[in-house]
Amino acid sequence: MKTDRKIELRKQLKKSGEASIWETNISNLVAKIYHSMMPEQIEKLNTMVANKPDISTLSSKHISIAWPDEILVDEEERCVGFLMPYVDGKTLVNVYNPIKREKEARGVNWRYLYGVAANTALIVKALHAKQYVVGDIKPENFLVNSEALVSVIDTDSFQIPKLTEGELLEVYRCPVGSKEFTPPELIGASFIDSIRLQAHDNFGLAVIIYHLLLGGKHPFSGRWTGEGADPSIDDLIHQGSWLYAPNSKLQVTSGTIPLEILHPKVQEYFHQCFTQGHSNPNARPGAEAWFRVLKEAYEDLADCGAEINHQYSKHYGRCYWCEMRQKLGGHDIFVPLGPKFTPSKEIHFPAPKKNSIPVKALIGAGVALTSAAGLIVTLNLSSFQTAETLQLPTLPCRNEPLPPSDFEDNRLALNEDLNRPPASGRGSTNLYNSTGLYVARYDGEFLNSERNGCGTLTFASGTRYVGEFRNDKFSGLGELTWKNGDRYVGEFENGKCHGRGTYIFADKTFTSGEWRYGDKVGSNLTCNYGG
Which domain holds residue 199? Predict the structure, then answer.
């Protein structure tokens, strides 16, 4: 298959010894142009184009597998490369390595990393379902975005089966591999002459998951206590000598994050892969099994009460990251964002503070949502954007509030006529807290002596709500604006931000998404400020 379109190569994005990646005149498609091609490479690409896996995820705009889309030929009809979807993101090392994470992705936390691990497993699962083998499975070949959605690249290096009438006739082999991610049975072997198995991928996948969950450490690293010079990681892989192997000659170091902080089933899977799997590759858990156990472990996470960027396994019972911070003299491998905010029970509250982290580097926590097809976990996370082109819903209520000067004295209401709300129709009334302190004024519609319909509630603190009310509460569409300029526009229920909504900060950055009873789904941002 070849494209009948004329493709314009506009800008070279990347160059390697094998090929170059080019921006093209077609939106969201890039071209991979080889310096030279062998006949077998062309056959392999034609097979891949004709047998595409499901490259989409829950998000229709996200590409999880950068698969060849169309063959490209030159004017002499010679194959020169292929078109593929453009994917963007950070390599996994930028989110699991604490030093790189502090510079590249400051809002990342353990919940996010669990989501990345689960998404990576599901991509491998989707490939294995089509009998493809990644072969060179390594962190550099996986990119992740701010929502923990993962994309695999360099797909033309995969091992691809050639099927004729359902029978496997031959495979187009994966000619490459990477140190420290190659299983013991392939160490020292010629990759170009080796048939890769899914069990081989399962080893590399487990190493990546270990990196993601345990601070970027390799399972076959530690302090060597055996005889002679320190062996390389590949030597230890070949021997089966990982940190928690029986009679291991590796010992933990001061920087080791203990395996015991993980969910027990995750611990068990690492033992199956690196201990039993050393002599029996088929004992290694597969990608689908990894996804199931990671999802269970994700749901077992608890939030730390002292630091909103910390989570811990309920099985472990306490926040290890707080313990580690104390051991490291106050240094936190997850950028601290402060204690979880719990508003008081007064009727008016200060505006919540946005995390003080760079907008472009922000990656937050998330919530897992499994697609009907079971393909991917989507984590809707706090990814702030600029509000230059923000489209907000049209609000049905646009009451004009009284000027703030009418509310400067919040100690008592001077106008006694406003202390008795009308039974129905339009009117105004003052609101007080349980101690008799004046806190707000309502101007709008009433029904059965309650705020019902369109109205404006202006607090003595300067906070203001304009929108729909039901039974004295914010319910329906509305806009809540704080004195500092922050505002929320969207749906409310029972006095809380609930449903679809957008939080716009005073600096014109914003975050949109789903809210549940005052909390943004998959984020530490709260909006529990109702009347």
Answer: 90-303+352-383
